[in-house]
Amino acid sequence: MPEGTVRTSTSDGVGTVEFAHPKGNSLPAKLLNELAAAITAVGADSSARVIVLRSAGSSTFCAGASFDEFTALGDAEAGKEFFSGFSRVILAMIRAPKFVLTRVQGRAAGGAIGVIAASDYSVAVRAAQVKLSELQVGIGPFVVGVVIERKLGLAPFMNLGVHADWHDAEWCERHGLYSALVDDAAALDAVIAAHASRLAAANPEAMREMKRIFWRGTEDWAERMGERAAMSGRMVFSDFTREALARFRAK
Which of the residue ranges 6-10, 111-115, 116-120, 229-233 would you say has the lowest mean pLDDT? Predict the structure, then answer.
């Protein structure tokens, strides 16, 4: 699994999308594009009435963008394309005509917080801390900030972005990133399965209209996140960011 995998399955009205990568379930560009395509495909599958998004393993939910790929970018245009990967996943999630439930079994960093924020409902274990780490490598949470600010509000987004360190799961639940917390993986699976089963039996038209209402006002997000991706792509090649990346890699 050197480049990671994305797998989908559907059973009893529940479509599951699972991503995996050997480095903390991080997301290189190829995997981001595959994940966006998989969510879109399950969203269009009439046999799936609700989507469960999850990652593999029992520890880290997602370490964010692939650091190896991030540091190997060749120019600003490549940088924009790289950072656009998360926007594609976020747009696929909010535009899917059915609810997306996200299972968070461990820590989430950087762009992973944007993925969780794009969920319609998320359940996490109490050990699932989050960190918006972009400032530590000399950039900012520009692309994922669009959906994080929408879900949490400006003040909590500012807190995450400025205090770029770990926030506990209770903080995340209090501010709306997590919908519910459980004690362990067994309870996590039970709660996700119960919610997904109940929603799979609900009225698809009602859920589709609710989803449209939840994400009303996001019609310009593709353009807005594209502009933010270009901002990040340029910033990667500044002297300050290059030096910050070198220090980060030396840790």
Answer: 229-233
Q: Does 201 fall in a domain?
A: no
Identify each DSSP E strand in 39-190 by its residue range.
50-55, 100-104, 108-109, 121-125, 130-131, 180-182
Distance of alpha carbon 34 from alpha carbon 6, whole angstroms? 7
By the 8 A CB rule, do 48 and 10 touch?
yes
Q: Which H or E run includes 251?
A: none
Q: Is the pTM of this model over 0.85?
A: yes
Q: How confident is the model at residue 225 (pLDDT cuts 50, 70, 90)?
A: very high
Count CB-CB contacts under 10 A for residue 166: 13
Under 8 Å CB-to-CB from 161, ≥6 apart: which residues? 132, 134, 135, 140, 141, 145
Tokens of 213: 């209402």
Kindly state whether residue 149 falls inside one of the protein's structural domains. yes
Q: What is the CATH number of the domain that holds 85?
A: 3.90.226.10
215 found inside a domain: no
Confidence of residue 137 (pLDDT cuts 50, 70, 90): confident
- Domain span including residue 31: 5-183
* 172 in any annotated domain: yes
Q: What's the token pair of residue 74?
A: 């060749």
Structural domain total, the chain: 1
